[in-house]
Design brief:
Elements lengths: L5 H8 L11 E9 L2 E8 L2 E4 L7 E13 L7 E16 L12 E21 L2 E20 L5 E21 L4 E12 L2 E14 L2 E16 L2 E17 L1
Length: 243
Amino acid sequence: MKLIRSAVMLSAIAVVPAAQSDVLGFGASIGYWDSDLSGKSSKGGDRVNVENELDLSNNTEANLSAFLEHPVPLLPNVRLSYVKVDQTGRGELDNGYDNIPAGASVDSSLDWRQTDLTLYYEVLDNWVNLDLGLTARDLDAKLEIVDVADLTRSTTEVDAVIPMVYAAARFDLPLTGVSVGVNGNVISYSGDSVYDYDIYGQYAVAGLQLRAGYREMAVDYEDGDDRLDIDIGGPFASVGFSF
């Protein structure tokens, strides 16, 4: 894979300090993300601005996550997360794109699916919490553009499994249930880059967690003749539990 070699990523996880949880723990959450889209899509030598020309806007989204932490030495903890973004719009092309002429009125849709498997260690676990690890991201993003006049259809798609460095930090205000934190994944290699992060405030009581903040994802990735250089960002809110 073009982004980075698996052997390099696996060797990197071996140097992470193995400070594990003292007990078995599990948690899950579901959230809503009110995101805006910007950036460009390219196919061959053609390029389109997804915000200004396609006028894509939020349609439906789903954000799910779950984690399992354990006290077994050396074995990493596990986190799974899933993001679904559907955006649609009608716009007008400034320039020709993949056999659709300049000036054409087009209907467009972005279908974004991403599943993350993260293996991580708890480096700090008190009022300051720090997790470090690696994420394997299965990304399937498809942008479809249809000429309203003659139904000529263009599809630009990125389908890849991307290894990323993962880090998460949380700072708890003792005895209040209030905390602030940041989570992030990032990789950059040979002209391609992928990152996402979220910054949040959280209130937890009796295992229930209410969280709100800001999340942003950026992908600049080439898959054959198709390239997506897209940024998705906006506020989010979630509810979860842990025990």
